[in-house]
Amino acid sequence: xxxxxxxxxxxxxxxxxxxxxxxxxxxxxxxxxxxxxxxxxxxxxxxxxxxxxxxxxxxxxxxxxxxxxxxxxxxxxxxxxxxxxxxxxxxxxxxxxxxxxxxxxxxxxxxxxxxxxxxxxxxxxxxxxxxxxxxxxxxxxxxxxxxxxxxxxxxxxxxxxxxxxxxxxxxxxxxxxxxxxxxxxxxxxxxxxxxxxxxxxxxxxxxxxxxxxxxxxxxxxxxxxxxxxxxxxxxxxxxxxxxxxxxxxxxxxxxxxxxxxxxxxxxxxxxxxxxxxxxxxxxxxxxxxxxxxxxxxxxxxxxxxxxxxxxxxxxxxxxxxxxxxxxxx
Length: 329
What we know:
2 domains; Rossmann fold; 12 helices; 5-stranded parallel β-sheet; about 325 residues
């Protein structure tokens, strides 16, 4: 009798949720979890794992040391879009296919971007704080340059599933939408612009691309300085693409009139970080995609891909170029 596939599930997905996802596999799979919530617990659990459902919350990192410890590892499923918590080079060298959950939260993140842009355009968070503090800033609100969204030029940096859905929602409200990505998309429902041109022509800049060696610091001080005076920034990508210090500098100079940030260089954002007290910043704890619908999509994507691996079918959304048929070691 063939031994069951050993599926190691890392936090933060709840144990009962994971067990329920793979109950239909019966004796073909065994779901296990680290015995302790530290690095030692991860390294102890990896040698017997055939499949790993990775950690998207920055607790357990699959770096080169962890990959070397996972001698039986045949497949890694990231329950997120970003894979910056994995050593892709080490996994690729070991012949381990890595998949993400591309597109699971595209609508949820795009709606958050739209809501954040509306909040910035109309100073909603500032007005809320002022009224809660006992004020009635009716005149001041009118003096804070409120603007209607449809009249804004929107630039989207990154045109994957999230970028495309973001562009579609803004266009539906009458905005002029342009985009930049490393590979131009024929037939895109937005205008392609080179990155510096996009920066110079965007009243609202949306950052929605993965963090890689090539994108780290991509939207730094020099590029932020290209924005029209009084532009708005919405970042739902990863911290480090538009570094926090660069964003603060652009806010203080007036180049940026406001920013809505779901991601930061360091997470959690330190309690004394100046972004926490900046009047023109809307803050969010990396939860732009955390809708009920997106969580259901995520569970389905992870369940279906890991089930395909166990049953010998090709997996979807491979991100490291390894063949999508999972071969057990």
